[in-house]
Amino acid sequence: MDFQSCVNIKKEWDIVGARQLGRDIAKKIGFGTVDQARIATAISELARNIYLYAGSGKVCFEAIDDMNHKGLSIIAIDEGPGIEELSQVMEDGFSTSGGLGAGLPGVKRLMDEFDIVSEQGKGTEIKVVKWLR
Amino acid sequence: MSTLKLDLENYKELLKEYIRTKDEQALYQAEQFSKHSMQHNISPEEIINIHVQSLQEIYPEMPADIQASMNFLLETMISYGLAYQEHQALREKQLELKSELSVAANMQKTLLSTKKPDFDGIEIGAISVPAKQMNGDYHHFVQDQEGSLGIGIADVIGKGVPAALCMSMIKYSMDSFPHKRMEPSVILESLNRVVERNVDSSMFITMFYGLYNPQSHKLYYSSAGHEPGYYYHHDRGEFCEMDAPGLVLGVTKDAEYPQKEQQVDPGDMIIMLTDGVTECRQGDRFIEPEEVLEIIKKYMDLPAQEMVEQVYKHFEKLQDFQLRDDFTLVVLRRNV
């Protein structure tokens, strides 16, 4: 846990900024091209959810380096309306992406660990981790 | 990890081979490679990655711009990969649902099974085939304590699982009625109350109930908005419609079901059916009720069970073996 950096998400353009920063950190950690692309796509998805449903929030990155474990942790935080039916948004085929395979189940597939906490009226926090192999 | 590396070697060799020969053989192997990859849940971006790595090894001097373009291609494939994985997951889920449904269908078959009773001088034929896995039609035979034979035939408006669940309820309420004297009007009145209390108002059940007394050879029947049955007069060689006024089950609490009476002579037949029989379709055309009767007439000389089976086979074929609605046909014939 050496550093943490965040990108505020307010405009659609900020999604690109988050991708860029996330990819740079992933590259530094040592992720290959395929994993970099996957991480970037997951960031897109998280940031777009903030932009579309919460209006504003932030995506934070943290390089993990303890003992023999290296990886990247990403936390997306917003103070939006929250998600009412978590089990529903985590279900395949439900996402509003219209069957484009993404949505939160997509993020879960792209990453190794996935954790979500959401409270109605208070906001949502999603934490994902990708381990370096 | 080692298998993936093996695949990379394999892919590189195949690619080299193809670039050298432009041979169909190599392309066929490429097809095998992609099928093998799918079996191992390899997503498209990984294939592209293998391709890029192979290219780098075959052409160490590959221009940096071309390499960059390959990363661009890889990036565009990520979402396809996700869609592919989602598709796989949904497919598995579908298989699960399908097998669950077939277990339920089997269970329903056991739950709703009814035994054709043996009556001297009366022959019974019955067939009920669901359009989908679960049957929304129901027929039921019961012998009351006075020796009369009760026959119920019912249809839930709607198909599939909800209809089937509804039918199980009907069956159990009927089983719980006292077996003393099963007057059609009383049975339908009681069932109506059960349905009205327990079933969502958007769901309707129609039912025809007949009670045959083998001593007096009288048939009593009532209908709850069900498809009319037919009565065949052997002496005249003529079919008559058999209908009684009565509301569909579950509409209002105190519906009444007037009962009608019919003297049954030797050779006469009582035909009860659901709209899956009368609303058979040939292409876009609904068949006419007369056509059903013609077909019944055609097979009338057969034993009752064979007769209903032949009639079913006829309409199954007419509809290209794809039933649009559950099909139930019950025939009763007085032989002596």
Would you give an account of this structure?
The complex is a heterodimer of chains A (133) and B (336). Chain A is of the alpha+beta class. Chain A has 4 helices and 5 strands. In chain A, strands 1-2-3-5-4 form a 5-stranded antiparallel β-sheet, covered by helices on one side. In chain A, strand 4 (113-119) and strand 5 (123-131) form a beta hairpin. Chain B is 48% helix and 21% strand. Chains A and B meet through helix 2 and helix 4 of A and helix 3 and helix 4 of B.
Give the SSE layout.
The complex is a heterodimer of chains A (133) and B (336).
Chain A: E1 4-9, H1 13-29, H2 33-54, E2 57-66, E3 69-78, H3 86-89, H4 103-110, E4 113-119, E5 123-131
Antiparallel strand pairs in A: 1-2, 2-3, 3-5, 4-5
Helix pairs in contact in A: 1-2, 2-4
Chain B: H1 2-21, H2 24-39, H3 44-58, H4 64-111, E1 122-129, E2 137-143, E3 149-156, H5 160-176, H6 184-198, E4 205-213, E5 218-224, E6 229-233, E7 238-242, E8 260-263, E9 269-273, H7 275-278, E10 281-282, E11 285-286, H8 289-298, H9 304-318, E12 327-334
Antiparallel strand pairs in B: 1-12, 2-3, 3-4, 4-5, 5-8, 6-7, 6-9, 9-12, 10-11
CATH level 1 name of chain A: Alpha Beta
Strand content of chain A: 25-35%
Helix percentage range of chain B: 40-55%
| Rg of chain B (C-alpha, Å) | 31 Å
Largest sheet of chain B: 5 strands, antiparallel
Task: List the helices and strands of chain A in order.
Answer: EHHEEHHEE
> What oligomeric state is this?
heterodimer
CATH architecture of the largest domain in chain B: 4-Layer Sandwich
Structural class of chain A: alpha+beta
The CATH homologous superfamily of chain A: Histidine kinase-like ATPase, C-terminal domain
**What pattern of helices and strands is seen along the backbone of chain B?**
HHHHEEEHHEEEEEEHEEHHE
CATH class of the largest domain in chain B: Alpha Beta
Number of helices of chain A: 4
Average of per-residue pLDDT values of chain A:
89
The helix count of chain B comes to 9
Strand content of chain B: 15-25%
Q: How far apart lie the N and C ends of chain A?
A: 18 Å
